[in-house]
Specification:
Largest sheet: 7 strands, antiparallel
Oligomer: single chain
Strand order of the largest sheet: 18-17-14-15-16-13-19
Strand content: 25-35%
Length: 429
């Protein structure tokens, strides 16, 4: 009887758990090494604790929402796309629902149920898990993976360094975002130590500091059905309709987080945000709407005439930015002033100053360069038997479940590839 292939997965997040399950299903003996006391710690906080597990869409739509290196992910998405993930989770007992924009959540709205499903799946497949274990080093010889050194607790409760050999290792240690969950960039060090190039990491899907002082004035104001554009000179880098929120430092919310993907690693000072507060109306329709409101409030002061058009918190800011005297009677406002107000509501400009830090970033931009990874297997082109999965790779996407699908897809592909390496080699001969 042929000996089972042994696979080590380092990192028990989304990509690591999926890789371990896939490798076990493909017939391998699997060891999962997780530095925390339980797996999936970052999953607990995704989707505001609800866990947006994926986006219920086809492969083409998944690729359209990938910001960095979408072509690299074609094979991974083709092998394991949204529908296959959903089928897997439901076969393991997790009920799912699809919400607006194709976002998929557990019916319970609890991320803990997603993690529990994976823990049960790992146990059912006899995956050996080392918790509170830190991978310290990945050992190779002559371009071939050999073993990992881990720091773990022995049976007596003492910490020890242990070397574990295997046929393959899958690096699924995540990026640097939310470091309190254990994402501290370890995988980048393993990659560089074994001769791989790593693109510098930067925070992504992250709130943005803006220069305008009115952000603090509007703190806590949430806007729905607005359109946000990110513009670099004359080029529109991002344009989407949805929700955003003002904070004491600037702006956040789904629209801003997605737009931040296009700010990471760029010269932010040259860019600007343009907010359309009334995207459903053309400038002419909005001017007509303002004119009707002005007719209704013709004997009121300007500052008291916008209640039907804008949230109360926004009125003082718009009044000031319009250049119209707040105490001017509405019936004295000129046509030029009114059209200027309409233009302001359609194009409220905000200047990005900087991105917030890794402790607020949902994901990390950058990572192991894709040109050094085989996209058909997730195996390193430099070290045989070494695979990469998830956020450690230089790929990222917009909000809406797309980044988690990258983790599931690359984890699955790495898992089956690492487990069936001999079969693959035989088939290629």
């Amino acid at each position: 009887m042929e000996k089972k292939r042994e696979v080590i997965v380092t990192g028990g997040g989304a990509a690591g758990m999926m890789a371990a399950v896939a490798a076990a299903d493909a017939g391998a003996e699997v060891i999962l090494i997780e530095k925390n006391e339980k797996p999936g710690k970052k999953l607990y906080i995704t989707g505001k604790g609800r866990c947006n597990v994926t986006n219920n869409s086809d492969i083409q739509n998944l690729l359209l929402h990938v910001v960095s290196n979408p072509k690299f992910l074609y094979s991974a998405f083709s092998v394991f796309y949204s529908k296959k993930l959903m089928d897997f989770l439901e076969s393991e007992g997790l009920k799912l629902k699809t919400e607006r924009g194709g976002r998929v959540f557990p019916v319970s709205d609890k991320s803990s149920d997603v993690i529990r499903t994976f823990r049960n799946a790992l146990e059912k497949r006899n995956v050996k898990v080392y918790y509170n274990a830190k991978t310290r080093k990945v050992n190779t010889k002559d371009g071939v993976f050999k073993s990992v050194n881990i720091e773990c607790t022995d049976d007596s409760g003492n910490r020890e360094i242990r070397e574990i050999g295997a046929d393959a290792v899958i690096i699924a240690t995540g990026g640097i975002s939310y470091p309190l969950t254990g994402s501290t960039g370890d995988g980048y060090k393993f990659a560089e130590h074994t001769g791989h190039k790593v693109k510098e990491a930067s925070p992504s899907l992250v709130p943005v500091n803006i220069k305008e002082g009115f952000a603090k004035e509007l703190q806590g104001l949430s806007l729905r059905n607005v359109e946000l554009s990110l513009v670099d000179g004359r080029k529109v880098l991002y344009k989407e309709m949805g929700e955003m929120i003002f904070t004491h430092f600037g702006i956040s919310g789904p629209l801003v987080l997605s737009a931040s993907s296009y700010l990471s690693g760029k010269d932010i000072q040259k860019m600007k945000f343009v907010l359309d507060l009334k995207p459903a109306l053309t400038i002419q329709q909005l001017d007509a709407r303002i004119s009707r409101d002005f007719s209704e409030f013709k004997n009121s002061y300007f500052k008291n005439s916008l209640g039907k058009l804008l949230p109360a918190k926004l009125i003082p800011v718009i009044t000031r930015l319009s250049g119209i005297d707040a105490d001017k009677k509405v019936n004295s406002i000129t046509r030029q002033e009114r059209t200027g107000l309409a233009s302001l509501l359609k194009e409220l400009v905000m200047t990005p100053e900087s991105l917030r830090g890794f402790d607020e970033a949902i994901i990390t931009k950058g990572g192991v360069m894709v040109k050094e990874i085989n996209p058909s297997t997730m195996e390193s082109k430099k070290v045989k038997g070494m695979y990469f999965a998830g956020e450690v790779i230089d790929t990222d996407a917009m909000t809406g479940g797309y980044n988690l699908q990258i983790a599931w897809s690359t984890g699955y592909l790495a898992g089956i590839s690492a487990a069936t390496w001999n079969t693959q080699k035989a088939a290629q001969k």
